[in-house]
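Example 3.2
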Amino acid sequence: MTLARPVISPRVRPMAWGAAALIFGAAAGLLPVPASTGLLVALVLGLAVLVEPSLGLVVMLCVAPLKVLIATEAPLALPGDVGQWAFGAAVGAWAVWRASRARTRPLPRTRVAAALLAILLGFAPSLFAAASGSAWLAEALKWIEMTVLVLIVVELGERGRWAWIAFGIVLSAALQAAIGLYEYWGGSGAPHLWIAGYTRFRAFGTFGQPNPFSAFMGLSLPLALGLAWGNARLAWNRWQAGDGRAVRWPAAAAGLYGGAGLLILGGLVASWGRGAWLGFAAALAVMVMFAPRRRAIGAGLLLGGAALLGVVWAAGLVPAGIAGRVTGTLDEFVGFRDVRGIFVTNENFSTVERLAHWQAALDMAAAHPLAGVGLGNYEAAYPGYALPRWPHALGHAHNDYLNLLAETGIIGLAAYLTGWALIVIWTVRALSLRPPVMHGLVVGLLGAWTHLAVHSVVDKLTVNNLFLHIGVMLGLLAVADRTRRCAAKGTEYGIIGSH
């Protein structure tokens, strides 16, 4: 494959570097030290992103969770969402790279992106019922951005950069977990976040709330564990082959991902998020089942792990706070019923509030069964369906399936479920990949989809820029899917055999 010549001539590059140095020098002399230092960091980072566009995705993944923190704590009001600015910068860097290195190459194609566009097409009829067109557009843009990210990751994956992009997701989650653990041990918090007998705070990272933070931990943890497993298998294979020197890097990577996984697990526990706990428990069960090449071994490990957990639970070795949190969840949400007659107490307030929003979503769906009240319009439509004593909307139904049924009707929900069913099928098929690290990546992605499916029963996870991380994960799946299909055809997709 012949690459196009760079747009910037080699003769012009020294002049460009000189101009950049002159601009920074002038700024350093006129601006305060913190401002000039920040400018230097931004300049160096910007040049690095232009040279290596995959770095732009890593920066975006790490910056996107800062949305709420910057919006509430920044001394100066910034124009727009920092995560969206980072997304725009990542897309811009990719576009510059394409213009200079690959402008003659057609845009990548993948059926994962087609599945996302099909989901969005299923949401389209709800536009005609939407009371707020801007709310509909804002929600639709999330799916468009996820599709763009899939295409970017696929093209960069062809250059072998998928591993760095996957590392960016784990790095972002590990940084948030470290902040969350600091908050858990008393570094920050609010009275309503007291837990464990008023001795700890629920962790929330930079998300402002524990629920989206716990969702991020639960989505990212399977990926960290899957990559740790894949690198450990690669190190083992090389050690068995007698290639001692080649063991170092995969062994170090396995330790790095394993350590990050433990850190993220700590953040998940500290979030005190019941939905995230249940989601990760389901994800871990699926990963244990599908990680071994032989399903019989996976089934045996799963049964053994379930038996061990039963013994630990029966022996009372699970911390009382965690055990009470889990059993309380099962007791509260099993047997959904009309909540208008429930006596509200301090203990059941959050649960009854959530169930009231579920009931409002069902009433919306009953009134608009086919196309719903409009994508992203749950909050706008809520006053007309609010139950007594619950006049204020939470922004969404805290159940993504009911939320989509209310907003997009049967058509939209069917498109969503069909699209994700295809994504899961393609993920399972990609488990046949032989390279250990790629196989570990796919196992982690399957765990992430499992967590998303289970956690969505009690919350909505495409909030606070988390859809950007989901979009990158879908891009990684597209890389694995194309690799598998190319291997089946006997062709190469640039990364086969490298891991």
